[in-house]
Each structure stands twice: as C-alpha cells, then as structure tokens.
Q: What sequence folds into this?
C-alpha cells in the first residue's frame, strides 16, 4: 500500500515537472520563432538595400559581385542562408570603400543595425531553449515534441556603413 | 506603441535607474508613444508625480547587495502588477533590473508577450543571481531583448545569465548642458572641478587632494571647486592649512545648478579609483565643453574614446594627476581641442539617439516594421518593388523580391492582421 502511494506520488511529481518544463519549452520555441521571423525580415531588408546600393555603384566587378550576393541571399533556402548572408556581408565590405560620395545609405545602415539586433536576440532565444532541451530529463521524456533543436545563426554582420557611430549593434556573440 | 516600463526602485528617491527611466519615458512620450511606468512610490499623492507613473505602493527597506535597497515584493505588489499588465495591454514591456526582487521581477513572472530588459548594474556578484539564479530562469527566459548600459553591465549578463545583451549607453540631455554658463561671482584663477560624494572613497577625492600641493606649485593661482554631499570638515582637514583658501566646497548641488558647476571650471577632474560602470558625470561635463581629466578606468576610457576626447591618468597616481592637470591648465589650445572632441563624442549619448536605439529594440522584439501606427503591407511591397525596378529596370527581380516578401508576410500572421 505504502509502496503504491509512494509510486503514485512520484508519478504525480514527474508529471507536474514534465508539464511545467513542456510549457516553458513551448514558450521558448515561440520566442525562437518570433526572433527568427524578426531576423528574417531584417535580412531580406538588408539584401534589398544592398541591391539598391549596387545599382548606385559604377558598373564593374564590385557592383556585379554585390548585386549577385544580394540576389543569392534573397533566393537562398534555409540550408544555405548563413553562407549566403555571409557572402553578402563580404561583398558589402568590399563595396563600401568604393561607393561614390553621396550614395544613399540610410536604409542599408538601418537594416544592418537591425540585423545585428535581431541576430543577437535570436541567438539568445536559441541559447535559452537549447539549455533546457539538452538537459537529461527533458530529452529522455521528449518534452520538446517533434520540434527540431533550434540552431544559432552565425554570420558576420559588422559591415555597417554606420561603423563607429553605431552603438546599438552588439556583436551578438552567444555562448 | 504602447509601452509598459517597470522600475524596481522607489520613484521619489534619487537614483541612477530612476533618472534613466524618467528620461526614457519622457523621450518616448515626446516621440508619440504611449508610456506607463510601474514603480514603488513613497508619496503617491505628491503633485510632482508624472501622470504616466502608476504607483505599486510603498517599498520596504531590505538590506541587499551590501546596501539598503527599498523594494516592493509581495502578494499585494504582485496583484497590482498583474492588474497593470492586464489593463495596459502593452505592445512591449520594458523591465529594468529584473534580477532585483521588486516590481520588474514580478512583472517578468506575470507577463507574457514581447519583453525587453535593461541591465544597469556592473556588480560582478549579484546575490540574487547567485542564490536564486535557477529559480529566476523561467522568468528571465521570457525576455526577448536584453540591453546593457555599459560593457561592464553586459559582462555581468553574459557571466550570470548566459547569452548576450546589446549595448545601449545611458542617456544625457545634451542640450541642458551645452549652453551652461558659470556660477555667479566666481573668484579669478584657473579652476578644477570635482563632482561626486566627497566621503565615498571610490570617487577618489583623496587622490585629488593629495595632488593639490604639487598642482599649486606648478599653477600658483589654481582653485579647487568641490560639489557633492558629504562631510566638508573632513575634506578641509585633509588640505594643508596654507592651501585651504583655494578649496571651495559647495555641498550637494541641484540638477539645475550641475551644468553651471561644470561650466565654472577650466577642467573637470574625475579621479575615481574603481567601481564605475558607465561615467554619466563625465558625459555631462563633456557636454558643457569642460575638458575632462579622468582615471584610466575601462568605463571612462570608453567615454573619453581612449583619450581622444579627454585626458586619462593612471588610477590612484597623485603625481601623474597633478602633472596632467597642470599641463592642461597651461595649454588653452589643447583644452579647446579636447572640448571640441568631447562635444562631438557626447552626441552618441544624447537621449534622442539613445531613445531611437531603444525603440529599435522594441520594434525588433514586437515584430513591428514601422515605428508607429498601421503597417500598410501593400504600400510597402510596392515601394520595395519600385526601388528594385528603378535599380536596374528588371521587373523579374522586383517580382522575385515581392514573392520573397509575401512569403515572410504569410508566415507572420500578426503583421498580416495589422494590414
């Protein structure tokens, strides 16, 4: 009798714990989704702004490379996204020194700053989620359901025309 | 946007976090946002209370982190916090210092929806985090965007909470400082200004007093203007009798007089020994155009841009301090150059700039594309399409971008709803 009571008690405890963790995970996944949506918006925005800048460049290798990189970033699927966005950062870095004076950079500055912000917040959300999901009990009980383990989004987004006066863009490194 | 701000410390007691929240709320309202601030208040009937403040009740003094903090934590505060959240229907909730056991932490536990937090403290060891770190995690993990006001505060976040925070500095109303004139009836002679608690060792007044005899030897008519609360008698004791006539103690100065105190000096001196997270006073002095000589602390080095916008001296080195002050007092062109560089450097700390950066964070976590009001999706798509079409006249490309944008819009029901 006592043994049965203890067993039932333990089961209740495990269930309460499991539902609490599952609730937290649910919320965290929603946070990751929202953070990714925000990051996606800003990445698209940056690529669109980069194309506008490419159009303002004198025709040549740099302009063509920037335009190609921006197109590739806009077209890329989830798998190649990091690589494409990184290529775009590199193309931007090459293009910024040779811009004709007076090129309109406001949109690109804003988008780049916000990519930095959104990426920092996204990676923080991923970090918080992974911290729980990789624990032993949530993993054993499959409390995350069928959700894939969220992945960090690591790109170099420091190629900002506003460099130096831009305090907001943290370098977004996540541990 | 509808913005809810939670401030953990008692509103009508002076403090850095309260000042930050007050200025931020004012700037946000100036930009047309709707703001409500939840905070403990000692005197809810006070006429000085801004209309955007919602009192959560009185705070209880609790010994915390080596000093006495006045905090609001308990069932009644929680009920009021919940009601504030429910009635506010905020687009973004901004909690300050959520690891301090007060309304910010309560709001963190009670809220759902987009949340931003600002970390001010640079205390390497927060007792709450050490003891309750694990218990706080479920509340803290709801925060979508973390802000730290300084590199030191950011380091605390990284070390104690994991993950990162974006750096957005403290703000200053530069315009309130930049045109300040000196105090009336100033005696002649070059003046060095010190501002800060005179009996708090880490503010470093002792180092400055130690440097005084050497400074007088090199600049015979120099004067020292000291502003800040504390025991004036002790300070006088520390100065040799022959030099006492050169030292002027103003006591605590009002916010209105502060810019004029800076403007009364040829040089502002910040001989702090340690424990500075940010250096807002330096920014204020720089905004008045008074050249700064400061200890070479990490926070100060940042504000002074590695010495470009002010002079850095080794920490606790009275000899070096006297030399640096004397050199600068004897070199008017250099003072002018430093003042010009400083005036330029402080623009980054003006509330207009800082608030814009904070709003960018709000928009990022709230999933807003436009700063305020309606998101007109069709108009936005069209303008982007036009932008592309003008780029190289290729309609194919515009179509591709539009389809990309449609794709993400489809995935974002919240945004689509607004259209």
A:
């Amino acid at each position: 009798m006592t043994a049965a009571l203890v067993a039932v008690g333990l089961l209740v405890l495990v269930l309460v714990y499991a539902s609490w963790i599952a609730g937290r995970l649910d919320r965290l996944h929603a946070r990751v989704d929202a953070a990714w949506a925000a990051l996606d918006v800003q990445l698209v925005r940056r690529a669109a702004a980069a194309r506008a800048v490419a159009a303002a460049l004198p025709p040549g290798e740099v302009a063509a490379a920037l335009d190609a990189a921006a197109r590739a970033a806009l077209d890329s699927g989830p798998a190649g996204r990091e690589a494409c966005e990184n290529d775009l950062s590199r193309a931007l870095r090459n293009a910024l020194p040779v811009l004709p004076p007076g090129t309109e950079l406001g949109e690109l500055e804003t988008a780049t700053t916000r990519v930095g912000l959104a990426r920092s917040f996204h990676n923080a959300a991923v970090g918080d989620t992974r911290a729980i999901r990789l624990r032993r009990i949530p993993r054993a009980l499959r409390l995350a359901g069928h959700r894939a383990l969220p992945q960090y989004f690591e790109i170099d987004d420091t190629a900002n025309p506003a460099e130096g006066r831009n305090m907001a863009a943290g370098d977004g490194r996540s541990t | 946007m509808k913005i809810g701000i939670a401030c953990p410390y008692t509103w009508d007691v002076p403090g850095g976090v309260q000042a930050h929240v007050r200025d931020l709320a004012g700037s946000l309202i100036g930009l047309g946002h709707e703001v409500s601030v939840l905070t403990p208040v000692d005197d809810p009937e006070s006429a000085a209370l801004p209309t955007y403040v919602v009192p959560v009740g009185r705070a209880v003094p609790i010994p915390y982190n080596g000093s006495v903090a006045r905090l609001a934590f308990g069932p009644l505060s929680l009920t009021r916090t919940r009601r504030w959240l429910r009635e506010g229907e905020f687009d973004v909730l901004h909690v300050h210092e959520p690891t301090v056991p007060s309304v910010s932490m309560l709001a963190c536990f009670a809220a759902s929806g987009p949340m931003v937090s600002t970390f001010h403290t640079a205390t390497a060891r927060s007792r709450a985090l050490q003891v309750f770190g694990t218990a706080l995690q479920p509340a803290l993990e709801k925060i979508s965007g973390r802000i730290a006001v300084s590199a030191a505060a950011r380091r605390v976040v990284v070390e104690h909470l994991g993950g990162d925070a974006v750096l957005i500095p403290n703000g200053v109303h530069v315009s309130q400082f930049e045109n300040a004139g000196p105090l009336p009836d100033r005696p002649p002679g070059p003046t060095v200004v010190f501002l800060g608690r005179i009996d708090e060792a880490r503010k470093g007044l002792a180092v400055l007093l130690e440097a005084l005899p050497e400074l007088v030897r090199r600049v015979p008519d120099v004067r020292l203007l000291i502003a800040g609360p504390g025991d004036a008698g002790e300070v006088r004791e520390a100065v040799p009798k022959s030099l006492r006539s050169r030292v002027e103690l103003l006591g605590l100065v009002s916010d209105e007089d502060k810019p004029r105190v800076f403007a009364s000096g040829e040089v502002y001196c910040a001989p702090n020994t340690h424990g500075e997270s940010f250096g807002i006073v330096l920014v204020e002095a720089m905004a008045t155009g008074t050249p700064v000589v400061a200890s070479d602390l990490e926070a100060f080095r940042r504000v002074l841009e590695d010495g470009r916008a002010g002079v850095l001296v080794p920490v606790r080195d009275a000899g070096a301090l006297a030399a640096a002050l004397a050199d600068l007092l004897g070199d008017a062109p250099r003072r002018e150059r430093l003042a010009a560089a400083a005036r330029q450097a402080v623009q980054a700390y003006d509330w207009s700039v800082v608030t814009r950066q904070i709003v960018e964070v709000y928009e990022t976590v709230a999933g807003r594309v436009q700063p305020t009001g309606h998101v007109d999706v069709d108009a936005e798509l069209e303008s982007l399409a036009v932008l592309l079409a003008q780029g190289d006249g290729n309609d194919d490309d515009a179509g591709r971008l539009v389809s990309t944008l449609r794709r993400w819009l489809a995935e974002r029901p919240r945004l689509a709803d607004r259209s």
User: Anything to note?
Assistant: The CA atoms of residues 86 and 155 of chain A lie 5 Å apart.
